[in-house]
Amino acid sequence: MASKDEYKSEYSEELTNFIKTPSVPAPDPESTEYGVRSTAYPAIKNAPLPADAAGSESFNNYVLFALLGGIPAYMAYKIGGGFKTWVFFAILTAIPILMVFWTIASGYTPRKNEKARYPGAPVEHYLKFHKEADRAKYHGRSKIPMETFHEKYFDGDVDFNGDALEVMEYRHDWANFRFTLSLFWFFLTGMMPEVIMHTRSQDEEQVRDHYDRGDDFYSWFLGPRMIYTSGIISNINEEETLEQLQDNKLAIVCQKIGLQAGDRMLDLGCGWGTLAKFASAHYGAQVTGVTLGRNQTAWGNSGLRNLGVPEEQSRILCMDYRDTPVPKGKYNKITCLEMSEHVGVRHFSTFISQIHDMLDDDGVFFMQYAGIRKSWQYEDLIWGLFMNKYIFPGADASTPLGWTVDKLEGAGFEIKSIDTIGVHYSATLWRWYRNWMGNREKVEAKYGKRWFRVSLMPTLLLD
């Protein structure tokens, strides 16, 4: 097995032209109290305004269902129609009712948490609009819908007044999270058909269009480890590098599954194969990585060869997860780090059952995924639709924790432990943001300003 030093040297040999993550900008000397406790930890980007937008403890569908059934019933009654007439009006009015209900609810629902005080600065304090019509429409306390903002930002019609991340930290002061017509259009014609279908060809097309964009594109924010999932902080009072965060995570995953030499390990959605290399080099595990990305497959297998890991021991396979080969005796360990979201809600139960069937009787399954809060917040939905449209098409299985646990237990798994790593993801994104900004000229030169801006936005979602 490779030593730790040998393992790290492999990165420097395989990858070149990586920048050192830019240092943390000098803190703002001004200190303002917003009515809530703030933090000052070196490991993370400390939010100056930890606030929530509109939402409720849970999204109550009773009113919505009453409207969906009651309005067509009233219309059928007024013209003397029966059940068939009600069905006709129900189909005819469903989409308009949904649009009106969600527009009103997203615009007038009170804030989820009233403890934090917004600064109350005008919109122009935060944003610089380049069109007179936009300057006239969004000024003072006339907030801009977040979906409208990010579309205008991608098109170059608006810029941040100052550092993008700092301005986004105060987004609740200058943006609202109302539903817009274009958001409805994407939800109904883009996301919903994908949720319903989620075919093999759709998954393959979406994954390859995204992950085969170019290894350089991802290297400019992921850094030498090429890991597109959250790292782990080991000490909140120290600023560890991105590479340290990812090394921490690799070690923790292997420790949690009790990895041993000779274990048959499967890594579903293995990305560029970094975990497969780590497990092969440090533990002598026999690792099979599965990904739909062609570039990732080539990269991962090249890394294994550079480490001296024979193909008979470990390999990366380019295939759909549904076609994963199962060795004699099944797998001892299976990991799935932020790939299950791509499976989709429709196929999630089948996916978990497949994993259960591929494990031996004493096998261990480790899953890491990015979910949403059960407590309903329109901001979460707006960002979720944005991510589905631009960043992770088809990744609709970002679900509340309880839903996921229910599916795991339903498939026969016994839950051993659960960790919430949101703050660790925040720390990871902060470093991705600084890398991306540090490589701005390279990105814009090859992929254009629009793609730089589109891919910048997810790194700003730290809270």
From TrEMBL:
<feature type="transmembrane region" description="Helical">
    <location>
        <begin position="59"/>
        <end position="77"/>
    </location>
</feature>
<dbReference type="GO" id="GO:0032259">
    <property type="term" value="P:methylation"/>
</dbReference>
<dbReference type="InterPro" id="IPR052290">
    <property type="entry name" value="Sphingo_C9-MT"/>
</dbReference>
<protein>
    <recommendedName>
        <fullName>sphingolipid C(9)-methyltransferase</fullName>
        <ecNumber>2.1.1.317</ecNumber>
    </recommendedName>
</protein>
<comment type="pathway">
    <text>Lipid metabolism; sphingolipid metabolism.</text>
</comment>
<dbReference type="InterPro" id="IPR029063">
    <property type="entry name" value="SAM-dependent_MTases_sf"/>
</dbReference>
<dbReference type="GO" id="GO:0008168">
    <property type="term" value="F:methyltransferase activity"/>
</dbReference>
<keyword id="KW-0949">S-adenosyl-L-methionine</keyword>
<keyword id="KW-1133">Transmembrane helix</keyword>
<keyword id="KW-0472">Membrane</keyword>
<keyword id="KW-0444">Lipid biosynthesis</keyword>
<comment type="pathway">
    <text>Sphingolipid metabolism.</text>
</comment>
<keyword id="KW-0812">Transmembrane</keyword>
<dbReference type="GO" id="GO:0016020">
    <property type="term" value="C:membrane"/>
</dbReference>
<feature type="transmembrane region" description="Helical">
    <location>
        <begin position="86"/>
        <end position="105"/>
    </location>
</feature>
<feature type="transmembrane region" description="Helical">
    <location>
        <begin position="177"/>
        <end position="196"/>
    </location>
</feature>
<dbReference type="Pfam" id="PF02353">
    <property type="entry name" value="CMAS"/>
</dbReference>
<keyword id="KW-0443">Lipid metabolism</keyword>
<keyword id="KW-0808">Transferase</keyword>
<comment type="similarity">
    <text>Belongs to the CFA/CMAS family.</text>
</comment>
<dbReference type="GO" id="GO:0006665">
    <property type="term" value="P:sphingolipid metabolic process"/>
</dbReference>
<keyword id="KW-0746">Sphingolipid metabolism</keyword>
<keyword id="KW-0489">Methyltransferase</keyword>
